[in-house]
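Handout, tutorial session.
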Amino acid sequence: MNKRTMSLIIDIKKDNNDLTISELAKRFQVTERTIRNDIKSINEILSKHNLSDLTLNRGGFICKDESFSKITDFIDGSDFYTYKLSQEERKRIAAALLINSSEYITLSTIADNLFVSRATIINDLDDIKDFIKRGNLEVISHPNKGLRVDGSELDKRKFLMRLVDSDSLDDSIDNPSKLTSVQAGNQLIIKKIVSEQEGLYKHFLTDESFQGIIQYLGIMVNRNLGGEYIEPQPKINNSSYYLMACDILKYVAQYCNIATTEDEIRYFSTFLSKVRYIKKEAGDKAAVKIQLITRQFIEKISEDLGVNLNNDYDFFENLSNHLESVFSTANPEYTDNDLIKEVLETYKDVLEVVTNNILILEQFSGRKIREIELGYITIHVCAALERKKKQEIAFHVVVACHGGIGTSRLLMERLKKHFNFQIVDIISAHEARNVDPSKVDFIIATVPLKNCKVEYVIVSPLLSDEDYLKIGNKIESLRNSRHLPSHIEEKELSASGLIKKIVPVIRDLAPDKEAILLKELKKVVREYFHQPIESESEIFAPYLHHFLTSSHIQLDVECSDWKDAVRKSALPLLKEGYIEKSYIDAMIGNIEENGPYIVISKGFAIPHEGLNAGSIKVGMNLIRLKKPVVFNADELDPVEFVCCLSATDHKSHLKAFFNLVNLLQNEDFKSELRNGKTTEEMSRIVEKYEYNLE
């Protein structure tokens, strides 16, 4: 029992069931997860004394029984305490601040970051210096400037890595991990780059090694941005690790706006050679099949709920990734999660629909899906429903981030993608106290906000499905507490909004040049709105039209049966080095073993195989058959289009595959594919319809 929990009990005791999780998180300057844990502790006391538990209703409202007031009879107020950093914790955080800084840093700055007095830091200074000295580094003092750390750049990075590896501090304070972490926007890009290069070089990292590399690259990016580069390193042979290091740092430099050096590459190559790798597991063979099964599951869920969730790419990506993890082990472990329990209690109708359709997943996995697994799957469905519902509500919000502009931009773009929010401003967390409550409905923050007059909700910069539900709960609580904002019909000018308005005009006035004009239009609009011409998704997850160029489409191909159709759809990929010959036989064997599940729409098949069955590069090739053939797919026969897919990892083909499945729901798209005269025209048809999906 701590002081916060006691204060929480007192507040709940006074309240008339109007308190919410998010409101209490704001009041006590902690995360919503912390409040949930406090409520769990309170419920343990209630249960021990045969009193009714606190419950959570939709919107995060806390409900209590009349007997709750008796809880204070069983609590000893002398047991309360306020958490303070220990000297050891202060030492580690101060060391991270000093080493991670490229400039001098004052004692007052360190004290402010640790929420202690300058005198406390002065008393700790000798211990801090001794601690840093263990890393072959020295703290230098300057009377007018403050402190800085002297030593080699390599030793500084190794010290920062050790700090992160040994990090075990409370998550409510600025621990070394946060101080040494790269901005969230860059971190996401770094993860995608490393994942992509793992597949290309067939060097698959263990989870621990992957996280270590991400941490090192984050530290490297921060140091390079501050003008700090690694010292000269010995020359090494052009091993596969050296080539992999070259490619990773090339893309990191490009997308994180840093300059790299040969010495950075040499050291990173050595780093790669010393971490641990794993052989690709057999479960990866089923990656594409799981994605197909996921699509079928989403279609059935959408049908039963009466809500179209087929166009939510984040839903598809998140759920397919989750199911890959679930199906990779016979008995996956799950941590206890209060949000899961709350969601299952609140969204019983959604849970029922998921349960009614779970057979689709059980048939694939060959085992019963457990109740807790149903809960996690339901979380993904509920998040998709909340995203769709909240797109229609134009709340005015402020985005408050603890990190830099990369974190803020990443969070803002994800919010605008899934909510019809008007982003009033992007601010640093410490500026939240100055926000005018009359001009904003609530704040979305990445950390607790101090002395803030406006309601807020805390989320991760990457916006997980749980975060979407948090925002949904906040909106529900606002609905219940007051009227909806008067600005609900306002629309903010955006790049995507402007393009959507112009597309119909182009289609009417210049249908023959629609694809070309749209492509150029998007470039101009993105430049005007200061957005990259190539979006992050286009860089790391190419669109369908990037794969199905005119050279990867053949028309009126004669095929004797389905096996012949699969072979001929793959031949161009074989000739161009995308696949090995064994891949074609593996695809046919896959269909013979698992049936024609690759026929995903009437008349359209996507043959494929596992990631390590002979695929070399990610790619697609489409053939239109002169005469349709039978795949034994019942009502989906006969097949007139066969699109061979070569997948090399879990991600690179995902956006293209997702868009293709959605395009196949459009009969006009299929009709135009049937009537296309040339491969160039076919490629333009694909590009035109894919742009219209956006």
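The second record follows below. Compare its token runs with those of the first.
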Amino acid sequence: MIHFNPETRTFNLLLKTSFYAFKVDSENRLVHLGWGPRPASADSEAALISGWTVYGPDKGESSFEQQSRPDELVTFGEVSYHEVSLKVNFPSLPPKLQAEEAPHLPIRDVRLRYVDHEIVTDAQPGLSPTHGQPTRNSTRRETLRVQLNDPVQPFQVTLCYRLTPEHDIIERWCELNNLGDKAIEVEVCGFATLNLPHGTNELTAVTGTWAREFTTQRQQLPHNLYILESRTIETSHITNPFFLLNRPGQAWEESGTVYFGQLAYSGNWRLTFEQLPSSAIKIHVGYNPFDFNLTLAPGDRHVTPAIVCGVSANGWGGGSRRMHAFARERVLPRPDRQLSDRPVLYNSWEATYFDLSYDGQLELIRKAAAMGVELFCVDDGWFGGRRHDRAGLGDWVVSSDIFPEGLNPLIEEVHKLGMQFGLWVEPEMINTDSDLYRQHPDWVLHFPGRPRSEARNQLVLDFGRTEVVETIFQALDNLVNEYPIAFFKWDMNRYTSEPGSVAGKALWRKHVEGVYSIMDRLRRNHPNLDIQSCSGGGGRIDLGILGRTDQVWTSDNTDAFDRIRIQEGFSLAYPARAMEAWVTHALNHQTGRISPLSLRFDVAMRGALGIGSSLNELDEAELAEYASYIAFYKRIRHIIQNGDLYRLQRLEEFGASIIQYVLPGGHETVYSVTVHDHQLGWLRPTPPLQGLNPSATYRAVDRHDREVYRASGYELMTLGIPGEAGQLVGYSRTLYLRQI
């Protein structure tokens, strides 16, 4: 609900359990009032009306401090010695100023003043999906649009607030309008400024690199600035654009007030956390200003992507569950597939690498189908001259050397055995040994006269060129027109270097727009096509890409022990439904570590299950074990992929990860424990379960449908499930509990 009090000029955004409020002050500035949980006993329409706020030197700050007002969008002009979310260069003098003022050009000063507001139900942030496929919940939502104008320059900013009340979530973005007759240069362009209560300075985020993504990091913010960012054309392995914030020591998994946010954008982004000397907390979110340019021609309008944010009174877990539900219901495309289950996937990469043949793939297809696999994906090496990683990228045509009759004979076998067919592609990359590069050597990112640095023997295509985007789209579209392909694994295996483009500095945005446009057009033309986002593992995971894809490849690292940590970090922001997780060989080919089959499956079953092992290296007994686990997963995946997640015990606490998925109503739940570290003589506590019916009785069974425990919901929610306290490294089990 959006409430405006015309007497105090106060806006109240009222959600299920939280509120967000700001006002128009006496000088028509938009000033933040408060954000947080609503009192449990409050009336559904209770709102702030006084307009009282704390800011300025008259409130006890230093006499040097004149710029601490909590503006809804902090602009350079109102503020000059703190961080800002918007900085603009105006090229000409305002009317009535004398020419002798011209040496001061450009004018780097924006002062936004309230003009009007409206409430609409059809607003969309920038780069919203255009594929036309609805989400699970596509009901319209209210958006507050507040129009602000510069009182001197021909410049308008509209602040947008779209509400999803049931999940306590607000999406915020900006619309910039050049109302004049000269171009305006935007130096810094944020999507929003977030003002948090003073002292809310304990940050939970994730860091890492390739094969070590999503490492949870918790720390207290320093005074001044702390930055999380990406400086490349994908989301980044190094960190991910989401955060959780709370007062130090005042939050835990299921308790305390936690603020959360995540970007719906896959390009070079920045989250700047600013703690003022007063302990006020601001977060500036938006495009990374590094090598940034946005030119607004006369009459131009630019709409930024959104920051999705909210507050939970139920700790980090409450914040995670709100983000998960929002992604499942409002972001992931296509309701028919959302209401069904993500299929069990087999990928042939580790079985064959580049040594592809029809007979070799056919053998794997038959073994995969016999195990219960539902989607068979042929990985790298099927196209052009791609016999190794030094050639072929860019030539997206089926290799007649590998498949002389094309893909149809192979796909027919896949379909005959009840599976769907998928292909690996890497559309943004090119090898110099390719027909496309030989035809268009200028179609790659480069600066004239400078080196073209290869990584993984490849260069990056210039998606700032519309002809490049169109060529790649046509190649992929032709593939799906010719063959009944149900799934693309869309990979992207290097960072940018020498980012020279015909688009100039706008390349950082144009590349993302190009990727999004290809995916949107493919989905629009082929409604049954699924896409997985992969960027050397977890390098492109965010709400922007999830609006176009069905799942993401969380990490190239398939070591079960490492994946416990990676997946735990992933779960802070993203739902299990979107997380592809593989079972591979006991001896992991990346880490050299050996892990038992039970651990590998119990970890992989925490998301969308995939198999990556070479099935030709498994004997009949091992294939039967795989089949048994897959059958068990199919019984419980509707809970894992659609249920609420509770992190009952985290690695940082006791070296074990214990999680629970529970469907609304508490009738069915999945309990999963994995032990990463253990010291002899040390007993871990047994965590209580969550979300069950206390008066009901539950039967817990293993994958063989053997009953291992029976107890009331009350017992489970107070004492937990016994038997985990002293288990050793590598121990794991997954149980299915159903109300009887």
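Points raised in discussion: The domain at 360-643 is CATH 3.20.20.70 (TIM Barrel).
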